[in-house]
Amino acid sequence: MLLANPENVGSTPTLRAKRIGVHTYGEHIAFISSACRAYKPESFANINKIEISGPGGRKIVASLNIVENGDLLDAHSLGLSTAAFEMLAVPEGADVTFTLAASPRSMDFVRSKIRGERLTAIQVSSIIRDIAAHRYSKSEITAFLVASAAFLTADEVLYLTRAMADVGTRIRWDQKPAHFEAVMDKHCVGGIPGNRTSMIVVPIVAAFGLPIPKTSSRAITSPAGTADTMEVLANVDVDLAQMQRIVGAEKGCLVWGGHVNLSPADDILISVERPLSIDTPEQMVASILSKKVAAGSTHLLIDMPVGPTAKVRSAQEAAHLSKLFQFVARALGIQLEIVLTDGTQPVGRGVGPVLEARDVMAVLANEPSAPVDLRERAIALAGRILEFDPSVQGGLGPSIARRLLTNGDALAKMQRIMAAQGPPPGSPKLGTLVSEIKSPLTGRVGTIDCLRIARIARHAGAPVSKGAGIDLLKKAGDAVRAGEPLYRVHASVETDLEFATRMATEENGYHVA
Amino acid sequence: MLLANPENVGSTPTLRAKRIGVHTYGEHIAFISSACRAYKPESFANINKIEISGPGGRKIVASLNIVENGDLLDAHSLGLSTAAFEMLAVPEGADVTFTLAASPRSMDFVRSKIRGERLTAIQVSSIIRDIAAHRYSKSEITAFLVASAAFLTADEVLYLTRAMADVGTRIRWDQKPAHFEAVMDKHCVGGIPGNRTSMIVVPIVAAFGLPIPKTSSRAITSPAGTADTMEVLANVDVDLAQMQRIVGAEKGCLVWGGHVNLSPADDILISVERPLSIDTPEQMVASILSKKVAAGSTHLLIDMPVGPTAKVRSAQEAAHLSKLFQFVARALGIQLEIVLTDGTQPVGRGVGPVLEARDVMAVLANEPSAPVDLRERAIALAGRILEFDPSVQGGLGPSIARRLLTNGDALAKMQRIMAAQGPPPGSPKLGTLVSEIKSPLTGRVGTIDCLRIARIARHAGAPVSKGAGIDLLKKAGDAVRAGEPLYRVHASVETDLEFATRMATEENGYHVA
Q: What was the ipTM of the complex prediction?
């Protein structure tokens, strides 16, 4: 209404919808020709969003860009990016109109939060519903995230978690054992390269007979996520129906969470949060627990590594974060155990999908060369999950887990899970371009900087290049002589190897004393 | 580097730059074909920004969109939106490469601010320089604005103001009178429809002989800015050289600030702030004073209307805001006067560019029908500015201003300024579609809701339709009978009239008791 050209006396003018094959990932984009006479393009300079209406009454919100090129768009059409076109769901050429998009009403609550007020459950839930319905621009989402980063009460974290779980898919599991109506889950707070215990814990717990349908993310800022590493061994691109079949047959799975739509609001929040590197305990708790509620998990074990370069830096931080997890989990009816683990160095030897998959399979196959720290950590975590089962005596979990690993049951279960999920795409191999990073000093390895190792591995090409990464030859406590290699960098592209090697030479991430 | 396709062993692949005629207003946009083999488009899903390098070494940052349509872009090209193409400054088809754009380093200071820390002058200045250089995404700018909205010390406001003034054009004026090295300026904090005193104050002050080069904004959320209203009478689209010529000849001007580039960082901040309706005293002070420093103003009068629906709601708010203005202005060497004015109702009778221009010209021409409140307010404000001149005795400013108005000097000056700026584009007429909004009650008009009147006038089409708006027939204190009209709505488009009339009928904004 506000945008209609005043010379057009009469009703709101229509334009013809045209699909413009542009994927934007973030906001929907609409395109209008600068020659358009029905609307006045020059008045859009300060306008953020428009609301487009199709003939069926369906409405979408989009950002408007002006096109000066007649080849791309004529003066009577409104172009729509791929996702916007699909969401409006009209045929090519359909009559559409548009108007200034009002800011979503829940933005008033975001502004209350910016002023430092506490929000009610209803207010938080209306914000999350609008975010999940793509009614927020990236700026509006950022405003919510930053205002929440300033402070959020424990109650607000609970409201947020519940609201995020409510807008997604809720999975129901029929695979619960009769004596114990439970679905197990496991989550690592993250930050430690090589910490791929899920790929050992899931087969142990499933071999024991408890359901553990594990969804994981792909790496975004780290050199490998569990989904990236599992994808070296099996297909992880599985939808909900397939996932339920696999868990029905095998009790466990290790799949990518991207198709399951567990917490779409969280996915949107993360897509804005990550590039800004805003990471608060409150948002972490809401993000993790909302996905667990939606996934139908009843029992959850959280691995919380603590170390100077881990996500959780001190015992004090760990205590604060644990209390918040416990408060929200209890209110949501999730049985929660938190295990504080060593976060002073990477786990295992490999960092990067192929190298981490090698370590995992070595542990499952009981190879003598398998990294001890990865195995012991997985046994401890799996043991704690087994103890959720009332039929397991307190303290006996780890010994049961160890038995299921050493007797080959866990390996057999992993192989059945891999077969059920199907073969991996391609057959990724370890990067053949290699450089060795040598110790400049003789001494003993102290801590290893997890952030630095992760960065070097990413610059070597992980996780996009699955065979790229770092193979650690020395771990904390090992003696090392000057000139002896600390680790190998693997890459598939010459420039990646050069760049990663240069980074590692500048600062290798090892503290040798 | 991170994005290069691992199968391309060797150096970073090049693409050909292609101008895509899309105006985006906000961030630069780059387009890549989904068929591109040199880079792997599918790995871009979570990537926010890329840094593109041209053959000359110039680099720009852009958001990346993926194009599935071969007509728009072939697999060997990198498309660039208009502004991005111009900023990269390479010929069509030039070889370009790109890599993941690192977040600007000053984002670390934004994250400090989010954590509640105080920033130093150097930190604030590096944030503002990066924003002015378009190195921040909209989300990053929002993060800075929202974190600053939580709290900003007076010192931080000063750093911000100085940093914003430093990145723009600094105007030097050679028109200062010999006895008094000064450049006058006037600013209204805003929020009151019809408050067009600048168009009366500038001719009075210029007629007196003091330089007053006034730049104004166009309306963004209000039904008219001074630039919109002046544009009914004269051209306002003037660049810096023309502005200096006009002020050299006439001492005063009334132009749009858009071409003068006074505070580009502020323009960018406002473009993000406005749609979010985040409006803090700290940001207001930095925004206004940075532009005044850049404009070379030495003496500034601020009109601060106070009322229940004005921007400043209470005497307490006004005191807080005034102190902040005074602290920053003093540190920047600007002589500042703040006048608290009545903000309980609109000023004059007209709301909307054509109607407001009518009121202004009626005051300047001393017409008996001229609105008294607009005239008296302009005389009071102009009088205070004249008293900045040491040759004017304290208390005599208003009587001098009144004389310059009644003797026709101000009108003659306004006509010379209009002639110097040139004729207006088109000849906007008052909207001929009219509806009358009648009082449902008999009584006396109390306050008038400025926000409501502004909203109705905007829905009637102002300021895009210059002849649209509201003509107030009753003001506070007037007696009114049930059925007597309170105001007329003018529009140029039937649907606009209908919509605005419906809004006004629901809630007319008048308190009649």
A: 0.80
